[in-house]
Amino acid sequence: MTAVVLVHGLWMPGSELSLLRRRLARAGFQPLQFHYHSVSEDLDAGADGLAAFVEDISGEPVHFVGHSLGGLIMVKLLERYGSERVGRLVGLASPFCGSAAGVKLARLPGGARVLGKAMAQVLEEAPGRRWDGRRELGIVAGSVPLGMGRLLGSLALPHDGTVAVEETQLPGATDHIVLPVTHFSMLWSRAVADQVVAFLRRGRFERL
Fold first, then answer.
1. Angle formed by the axes of helices 18-26 and 190-202, to 10°?
2. Are 63 and 109 in contact (CB under 8 A)?
3. Which is more confidently placed, 85 or 93?
4. 89-126 residue pLDDT tens
5. Percentage of residues in the chain with pLDDT exceeding 90?
6. How far apart are CA 57 and CA 77, in angstroms?
7. Beta partners for 1?
8. Cβ contacts of residue 59 below 8 Å, gap of 6+?
9. Three-state SS letters, 82-100
10. pLDDT mean over 36-55
11. pTM for this one?
12. Are 36 and 10 in contact (CB under 8 A)?
């Protein structure tokens, strides 16, 4: 079976991805959960840990699915270590092009500490970020505007309550699709899981 490494988002433990892992397993993949310290570590440290995690996985290629900040960790892996053994990648609501909600939180008293080092690096590196196309990258964005990000002020429509669709649109990505889910409900969505499986199998999302 082909391994699929799942990378959780900011403040998350990884257990929220359990249903997606089960659906990937039923689709014939070997899902593996990678955990990192999303607040105390920066992107580089997270990518280093992910690289060490992948070293213990037998077989190749290894696919990756990253939710939110996790998508930036998997992309940083390629930047730091190259694309050897890396198969296809799927980012779920990952703010590849910055985060208005993150910027606003960082400006609040104590906000930068809560946001953490990795997201601070995401915001710093967002301008001019592009995908170089060495591997196929698919991105799923949500369009149901319910989530904690709204508490920090208005987000550009459409958005998933935390990340705006335009913040997920990384230039050079292989494919991009918007589904009617929130930032977190996408993790339990059958439609999202089906699209992840489709991209991992064929390098494209399914459209009617």
1. 50
2. no
3. 93
4. 999 999 999 999 999 888 889 989 999 999 999 999 99
5. 84
6. 15
7. none
8. 2, 3
9. CCCCEEEEEEECCCCCCCH
10. 96
11. 0.96
12. no
List 86's β-bridge partners, or say none. Answer: 62
**pLDDT exceeds 70 at position 17:** yes
Residue-range domain boundaries for the chain: 3-202
Q: Pairing relation of β-strands 3-7 and 86-92? A: unpaired
CATH class of the region 3-202: alpha beta
Q: Which of 53, 43, 60, 78 is nearest to 3 (CA)?
A: 60
Cα distances (Å, whole numbers) of residue 202 to 89, 128, 167: 12, 28, 25
User: Which pair of tokens denotes residue 34?
Assistant: 């990678």
Distance CA 66, CA 70 (A): 4
From the list 171, 202, 163, the residue with the least C-alpha distance to 69 is 163
